[in-house]
Specification:
The protein has 8 helices and no strands. By secondary structure, it is mostly helical. 21% of the residues are buried.
């Protein structure tokens, strides 16, 4: 009979009358049971880890919701109020106060304080779009206009303003003034580029702007009074919005990201 060895090089013990084939069959069944048992033991070790990770991720999402909820709600409320103020300032004709609006300040404010760029962009552009929708219905087209001609240049300019707001790492007078100036320049260059490319008539001559550098400069020059109003609006409303939220963070520490993080960590402990 062939010699059958265990892993430790010790011979297996055969029962009386047991053949070599029977012993091999029995050992194969035992090895399958052993492998299954090993797999079950491994699952017993791994499953709690997987469950813990899932629980941790779920808890992490819940913590983030708790972390940003009060702050996000206050930011959204301030932006909605500023958007409503734009409607109150609107007039059906161009005046010396045209472009004196809080929209630029809303873009800088959202870009600065919202954690994610996507949320800052979506809230700012949604506020701009809703207020445009109402203004077009009441003052300009007297009908519901979803998107007016040249809207892409305007919304692109305000998207750049949001990005400028993301670079405000420390809220102080100097940084806010610099951001307001850069935002106004971005709006001036981008929106007037759209006006020039659309062959919009020069209001002083009734003819389209010349399709050359001189025509673009002429378009920029005529827009200076309105961009000046936009700059003033950016400075005034940014001062109000940034100042109010900075005061609110000092008055109500729950609105601070760092303070809220420490509070939730303490509760978890």
């Amino acid at each position: 009979m062939p010699l059958l060895l265990q892993p430790e090089n010790r011979p297996y013990v055969f029962k009386p009358g047991e053949t070599f084939e029977q012993k091999c069959f029995q050992l194969s069944k035992e090895s399958q049971k052993t492998a299954s048992l090993a797999a079950l033991m491994q699952m017993r070790v791994l499953l709690p880890k997987v469950a813990y990770k899932a629980k941790y991720k779920k808890g992490q999402r819940t913590t983030m919701k708790k972390l940003i909820a009060p702050r996000t709600n206050v930011l959204a409320l301030m932006i909605i109020l500023a958007g409503a103020w734009r409607l109150l300032l609107a007039t059906p004709i161009m005046t010396s106060f045209s472009n004196f609006t809080p929209i630029g300040a809303i873009a800088l404010f959202g870009g600065c304080y919202y954690i994610t760029k996507s949320k800052a962009l979506s809230v700012t552009l949604l506020t701009l779009w809703l207020s445009d929708l109402l203004l077009d219905r009441v003052f300009y087209y007297h009908s519901w206009v979803l998107f007016y001609s040249g809207f892409a240049w305007v919304y692109g300019a305000f998207s750049v303003m949001v990005i400028i707001g993301k670079f405000i790492k420390k809220v102080n007078v100097r940084n806010i003034i610099l951001a307001c100036i850069l935002a106004t320049l971005a709006h001036w260059i981008i929106t007037d580029l759209g006006v020039w490319l659309a062959h919009t008539p020069d209001p002083t001559t009734g003819k389209p702007y010349a399709f050359n550098l001189a025509g673009y400069i002429r378009c920029l020059d005529l827009a200076i009074p309105y961009e000046k109003n936009l700059l003033i609006g950016n400075l005034v409303f940014s001062g109000v919005m940034f100042g109010a939220f900075e005061w609110a963070q000092r008055r109500f520490p729950i609105l601070r990201l760092q303070q809220r993080t420490e509070q939730l960590s303490h509760e978890a402990a």
